[in-house]
Amino acid sequence: MPHLFSPLKLGPIELTNRIAVSPMCQYSASDGSASDWHLQHLMQFAISRAGMIALEATAVERQGRISHGCLGLYSDNNERALARVLAAARAIAAPGTAFAIQLAHAGRKASCLAPFQGGRPLRHGEDPWPVVAPSAIPFAEGWPTPEALDGDGLKRVLGAFSQAAERAVRLGFDAIELHAAHGYLLHEFLSPLSNRRTDAVGGNAWNRMRWPLEVVQAVRAAVPRTIALGARITGSDWAEGGLGVEDAVAFASALKEAGLDYVCVSSGGNVSHAKIPLGPGYQVPFAAKVKAATGLATRAVGLIATPEQAEAILAAGQADFVALARAFLDDPRWVWHAAERLGAEVSYPPQYARVSRAIWPGAELVRPKQQGAVPA
After folding, report:
1. DSSP conformational letter for 352
2. Which of 19, 110, 158, 196 makes an SS bond possible with 106, Cβ 3.0 to 4.6 Å?
3. What's the CATH code, domain 3-344?
4. DSSP alpha helix (H) spans, the chain
5. Quick one: average pLDDT of 113-139?
6. Beta-bridge partner residues of 276
7. Would you state the pLDDT for residue 375?
8. Residue 33 and residue 35: Cα distance in Å, rounded?
9. Which residues carry out catalysis?
């Protein structure tokens, strides 16, 4: 069996395969509440047969949204809307499909237009809101100066993470992950480029980890051990003086000690001047180092597109599972086609079984066997 299609135990849950649909912001919510767009978005992946399907970054408080269209889990309305979407997706998913939610706070990168609207900070007349951060340092020139969170603010946001986790538990998610990457609030506290505080949650690397770990501990206390708990962390700020892979190893080690079951290792997003060398699997070496140093189940992400590429990452022991984002937007049937190319078996929804290569002669026309591919 290909590594990609072998099961994986993540704490209290077991994935049927090592393929995850990565969290992908859709900017299509109304005051944090999921819409019909989210319904179709999640349901198309529910029939994909991926081992894990992760919902997009979901704000734990209203001012923690990136944009007016960002998903949230800070109100009863948010919870009801998401319950509808999750129930519909579960009803058509394969048995054993794990649904995850990524809880986040955008910090100083909040109050913006959606990327397809320009991505700039909201202006007067566009209903902007005050942004917060560890320090009063704007994300980039022309961006608003955030308010540095004081003691009361830290308690409020920590409570928001805990309450959102309780809502996620009620909704029945199989896994909950905390977003501590891409320049959002938890990442901002971890990085010396965005955290210039001189109090107990600033300064040296341990102090910068202190408040994010308090959030982790509060969420861990709110989440029963029957639910997997993970985090997306950063492998590099890609900027001088910023975080590097050694910091990722240290943070992942602390997360493991705090009771987390897995990490996803991404990078970048914390400063606008980052120089990121984009290329196939460019973040995989970070995941490999974290996995080797900590033994914590590790997910790789970042320009992973083909089944052969994903299989090679797992076969080399660089990660325990992989997450794909744009590859799934391009081909929601990616798992079916990966199984076909790697010689694995995967169940099709019975309504769509007629498109399998074993039944449909047209498969050879639209999906010609590639040289070197293992025959199904």
Report:
1. G
2. 110
3. 3.20.20.70
4. 36-46, 76-92, 151-171, 185-190, 205-222, 245-257, 284-294, 307-315, 326-330, 334-342, 363-366
5. 97
6. none
7. 35
8. 6
9. 184
Scan for tokens 């010396």, then name that residue: 192
Q: Which of 278, 281, 260 minimizes the C-alpha distance to 268?
A: 278
CA dihedral 339, 291, 168, 173 (to 10 degrees): 30
Per-residue pLDDT, 370: 67
Q: How far is CA 159 from CA 66, 147, 156, 163, 179, in A?
A: 19, 18, 5, 6, 16
In angstroms, the Cα distances linking 194 to 90, 100, 110, 159 are 39, 28, 15, 22
* Contacts with 147 (C-beta within 8 Å, 6 or more apart), sequence order: 130, 131, 132, 133, 136, 153
CB count within 10 Å of CB 124 equals 6
pLDDT (0 to 100) of residue 369: 79
For residue 374, the model assigns a pLDDT of: 41
Could you say which DSSP state residue 182 is in?
T
pLDDT digits (tens, 9 = 90+) for 19-66: 999 999 999 999 999 999 999 999 999 999 999 999 999 999 999 999
Residue 320: which residues within 8 A CB-CB, separation 6 or more?
Answer: 8, 18, 262, 291, 297, 298, 299, 314
- Residues 141, 238: Cα–Cα separation, whole Å: 18
Question: What is the rounded distance in angstroms from the CA atom of residue 72 to the CA atom of residue 111?
Answer: 14
Neighbours of 140 (CB within 10 A): 12
Is-contact 330 24, C-beta < 8 A? no
Residue 368: band (very low, low, confident or very high) from pLDDT cuts 50, 70, 90: confident
Rounded to 5°, angle at Cα 48 from 43 and 53? 70
